[in-house]
Amino acid sequence: MGLLSDRTYGIGGPRHRMVGWLSEDTPFGKFEVLKSILRNGDSILDVGCGTGLLVDWLDNEGYDVDYHGLDLSNKFLSVFAEAHPELLDRLSEGSALSPFNEKYDVTVSFGLTSDLNGVDQAAALIGNMVESARDAAIVEFWDETLFDPIGDGIPPKSWSIDRITSAAKRVCPGCDVNVMRPLNWSDFAVVVFKR
Ligand SMILES: C[S@@+](CC[C@H](N)C(=O)[O-])C[C@H]1O[C@@H](n2cnc3c(N)ncnc32)[C@H](O)[C@@H]1O
User: Fold this and answer.
1) Which of 49, 53, 77, 128 is deepest in the core (most CB within 10 A)?
2) DSSP 103-122
3) Which atom of ligand 1 is nearest the CA belonging to 30?
4) How far is the CA of 156 from the centre of ligand 1 (A)?
5) Which CATH class is domain 20-193?
6) H or E segment and range at residue 70
7) pTM of the entire structure?
């Protein structure tokens, strides 16, 4: 698996710092951003957890965390629970756009934002993630100003880094809003530190 180019980025760092984390051509590359943030023993909420790819990455990396997953789709959650029966009582069905009831050390969302419509929904998601996070909230977006995933020439959504970081600052004016991106990908993660 990849090495981080700089394990110290982000925390306490300048806002909008752009730092590459190594991404090999693997679905796991996007999770590397967590390495400088998540610690053993932390609780983590994985919003839009799907079939549980993040849990495989956490296991591969040797993390021992208190994992919770949330997803709209019962179908994905069933596949997840079949592969990880030990996490059955940690999975819940629910929407990323409704407030979460609990607090977690870190909240994350990978791959969900292509299902959102517009910056207002993105801001609502970031707001919920930040509200439920004690330390940090991480939301991955595709920079659709750089990449047209469908290739249909239709103007992309508004996931430009500027618009998303502005939305994050709006929902949490006192937070430290950072952007991290994997090398050679059009993804970026907005990382909001609460303290
Ligand atoms: C592309 S998958 C990503 C799954 C996983 N996070 C990963 O990185 O492999 C997107 C997931 O987000 C879920 N999702 C989409 N919109 C959602 C919403 N509003 N609330 C909760 N989950 C949502 C989908 O059901 C799907 O499981």
Assistant:
1) 49
2) -EEEEEE-S-GGG--HHHHH
3) 8
4) 19
5) alpha beta
6) strand 66-71
7) 0.85
> pLDDT grade, residue 145 (50/70/90)?
low
Which residue type, as a one-letter code, is found at position 147? F
Ligand 1 neighbourhood includes 56 CB (under 6 angstroms): no
Q: Is the pLDDT of residue 23 over 90?
A: no
Quote the CA–CA distance of 66 and 34 in Å, as a whole number. 15
Domain ranges of the chain: 20-193
Atom of ligand 1 nearest to the CA of 97: 19
Q: In this structure, what are the phi and psi dihedrals at residue 177, rounded to the nearest 5 degrees?
A: -100, 120
Q: How many other C-beta atoms are found inside a 10 Å radius of the C-beta of residue 5?
A: 12
2 and 164 Cβ atoms separated by less than 8 Å: no
Which residue's C-alpha comes closest to atom 1 of ligand 1?
Answer: 111
Mutate to test the pocket of ligand 1, among 72, 76, 132 (most ligand atoms within 8 A of CB): 72
DSSP state of 29: G
CA of 53 relative to ligand 1 center, distance in Å:
11
DSSP state of 63: -
CA 181 – ligand 1 centroid, Å = 20
